[in-house]
Design brief:
heterotrimer, A alpha/beta (342), B alpha+beta (389), C mainly alpha (329), A: 342 residues, alpha/beta, eight-stranded mixed beta sheet, four-stranded antiparallel beta sheet, 10 helices, B: 389 residues, alpha+beta, 12 helices, binds adenosine-5'-triphosphate, binds iron/sulfur cluster, binds magnesium ion
Chain lengths: 342, 389, 329
Amino acid sequence: MATDQLLLEVKDLKTYFFLEEGTVRAVDGVDMVIRRGQALGVVGESGCGKSVTARSILRIVPRPGRIVQGEITLHRMRESKNGRTVTEAVRLTDLDPMGVEMRSIRGAEIALVPQEPMMSLSPVHTLGNQIIEAIMLHQRVTKAEARERAIHMLDLVGMPRPSRTIDRYPHELSGGMRQRGMIAMALCCHPSLLIADEPTTALDVTTEAQILKLIRGLRQELGMAIMYITHNLGVVAQTTEDVIVMYMGKVVEEADVDSLFHDPKHPYTRALLRSIPRLGQRTRERQRLESIRGSVPDPYALPKGCSFHPRCAQAIRGVCDREEPPYVEVGPAHKVRCVLYC
Amino acid sequence: MATSPEAGSSLPQNDLEVAEELKGEEEKIYVAPPWRLMWWRFRRHRMAVVSAVVLAVFYLVAIFCEFVAPYNPEQFFIKYKMAPPSRIHLRDAEGNWHLPFVYRIERSRDEQTMRSLFVEDTSTRYPIRFLVRGDEYKLLGLFKTNVHLFGLTVSRDEQGIFLLGADRMGRDLFSRLCYGARLSLSIGLVGVFLSLILGVILGGLSGYYGGTLDVIIQRVIELIRTIPSIPLWMALSAALPPDWPVVRVYFGITVILSLIGWTWMARVVRGRFLALREEDFVLAARLVGSSEMRIILRHMVPSFLSYIIASLTIAIPNMILGETGLSFIGLGLRPPAISWGVLLQEAQNVRSLALCPWVLTPALAVIIAVLAFNFVGDGLRDAADPYAR
Amino acid sequence: MLGYVLRRISIMVPTLLIISIISFVIIQLPPGDYLTSYAAQLRTMGDIVQQEEIDALRQRYGLGQPVYVQYFKWITGILLRGDWGQSMEWQKPVRDLIWERLALTMVLSGVSILVSWFVAIPIGVYSATHQYSIPDYILSIISFVGVGTPGFMLALVIMYVAMTAFGLNVGGLFSQEYLAAPWSWAKVVDMLKHLWIPVLIIALGSTAGSIRTTRANLLDELNKPYVETARAKGLPEGRLVWKYPVRVALNPFFSTVGWSLANLISGETLVSVVLSLQTIGPMMLRALTSQDMYLAGSFLLLLSTMTVLGTLVSDILLAWVDPRIRMEA
Ligand SMILES: Nc1ncnc2c1ncn2[C@@H]1O[C@H](COP(=O)(O)OP(=O)(O)OP(=O)(O)O)[C@@H](O)[C@H]1O
Ligand code: SF4
Ligand SMILES: [Mg+2]
């Protein structure tokens, strides 16, 4: 699989929520690149802006949120007149979020598997109705063909007896089945980028493992890129090759999975890794999992300087609480936002 | 690979320790008591605040109606049958400025229609004075006095002031409206209070004990609600003996109105009980062995008091409307009782309505009161529980 | 589904039976009966009333019997022979008096509820999707005032305005020449011409209320994840709103159609009295004041039956539109 072709570029993305109580800087200067077929993990504590980043890419940031700055560029494959496929760069940030072009990308080029499978399907429409709708929206097929494809897709995601399940209502399906349905819906138009926003948080461990396996398998089969959002580093290790770590709306470290796990640089990343239980490790008595000191600061009042400094053990007084640390390269494709590595 | 996937290796989310260092100065958040938080939230609802002020004025008028009304409501001015509202002037015919005054009213008769015509005689001015002496009454039923909020200083045979005009018998509508406020506005409060008692008892029993009792009470509620309310009210109030004195009819009507009102209250109370029964602090209280009644009183009642107050506020307008409607069609309060509904009886006839449209002002009073209660209720509900919707 | 409907109907029967008892008891509550008030009325007009005559009449109407015997006769008459008793005031069988009035009441309420939905749903959807915009603000205030204004007062105001501004008398459902006429096509047309004012008045309150519920329900639904899913598919916003959240937000409408009908009928009673419409309201008022008990009792029972049927219809509708409930059923 060619993973050198650019698929999506995000440059200095800022998405703020303007509330009565103040402005929430949910995404505050995020850069990232996703290549064709790449699997990128996005990790961070709850509230660090992972979902808002995903919604910004899809241009479905809910009100009162707004993209205030930055560029998102999608390199889209198109059939040119002479039958060859060419790539064409579309700047998503310039499009009308509800306009025709953005809608033709949403769901077709970039698809979303949301966080809560329980709530993400309409309770009063059948699963089939909702999948067929997605297919007919982006592909010129008859209803019968769309239904065929939907059944095929459900089969592909391992839905038991797809030709019957397709006519079921969501409340007749288990959580795992619903999430398979959601994945089928996301994949039915063969997107080049699948954004999976914590697709397994609401599921039990066994179902989670099945869904993860499914996503890995489908990625091999369909050759799409995946942006895998999670706060579960274990899942990242299994599913993706590259990882970015987010904290308070910023990317604080990015690396390939191996470097990140074996040589984490940013104090936050290290703290994250320390808070994970390891199977090989013998649990001695009294040994507790370390959790990160402090809690996520108030989103309305970001700390000055490095936003992690109130919780950072290695913070340098007079430096970290003054200036924003630079983003430095510490290895091949390994970057970190911390003064310690300057 | 450094980690094992199946070990539930999630990042800690909410259980991050609260670090000691964070308790810096800016971290000291003042935690306001709940009632103050409620007040803050209520204050944000501007219409509700305005409405609360309007209601306060209405109730003050109702309480002190003898003082606010310039005349006795039964006092009729033979000369001024169906007189239009008095025009209050600040400037006389010559263009000189004065304190507020009214002109002398001359009555004449239209030869063709035989209708009374009222014309201002601009040569005689009667100044409007505040705190004037007039009919004697007992303020709050206690203090004998004859001071009225405003009025004319001349004898009423000479001239009267009719802010809202006079009715067919020449009675001052404004005075009657003030007296009517007393019955109309209090019937809402008393009725809601009765509904509350019934609703809390039955809804509480239903929600707290559940089981058969719950089923029975719920069935009764459904049954009562199945009968359309106004026809039911009509049938019940038709059963009040016509020779009853005003006070008894008043209470009869209140009871009839609460007969349906309690079902809504009971539903609210029951719902809250069901929700609260499952909550930890009740379980905790039960575990330490508090008696059931103590559990109810100490823990459950306060926590949904705010809901009840909000629902009460929303229930009052229905009562007011019920009384008005019943009295209007002659099944509720009857003259000599004065309520807004009774006053509206004057408006029943299209022809008299066309002649003196000011008899509709009680309707305006009702609508304003009802709207104000709705807004205040809305504000209270939001203040009590901003997440309820 | 059929089983569900049958089960609902079987619950309905005892409910109706109890309501018939309640209706009858309530109608019996006033001291005295039709004949005492009739006699009193005659006396005030200066007639001499023979006690024997009254007693004979009382015998004939069965008024001297114990209440439960009277009830039993009444209800068996209704169930077995469709005989709702005799109206003492009109000197006619009740069944000759009620059906036309009931039908007119149904037409009026039905049309009003449809009108209120047709107006309220689009407005409510607009208000919710444009929350906090100026039109939303204005519409909210209007609907608040609408909720707070009782129909009969609106009727008074409209009557006054029509009278003074246009010299029209808007009362009644028929023109003078059709009042007593038998039903004909022309009479129906005439009725439709008169219908719109009462419909507007009666529909106002429920329209305002429906706008508020639509708006509130839709605001809740608009933030649900399934709406985002639909948006992430690339659906156009308008189609999306109507297909998903509106569809879910309207479920409460179906579930409350019975109650709204009851409320409409209830409010309509007073409006009809003001506008002197040929519906149940005015006749029932008269029957109540003159203690014409079989007539009044029959109206009370009929109105309640309509509510019960209304809730049945709304439950069936709800089961039909909401798969979650269909399952339980
Ligand atoms: N609709 C919204 N209105 C206001 N603030 C919002 C909204 N959505 C998100 N935010 C804010 O944006 C910030 C980032 O939220 P986001 O949902 O991206 O977090 P996340 O990283 O996905 O967390 P989680 O792991 O809990 O899903 C949070 O502080 C949140 O308060
Ligand atoms: S910049 Fe300073 S505070 Fe921030 S992570 Fe690095 S050392 Fe810690
Ligand atoms: Mg999220």
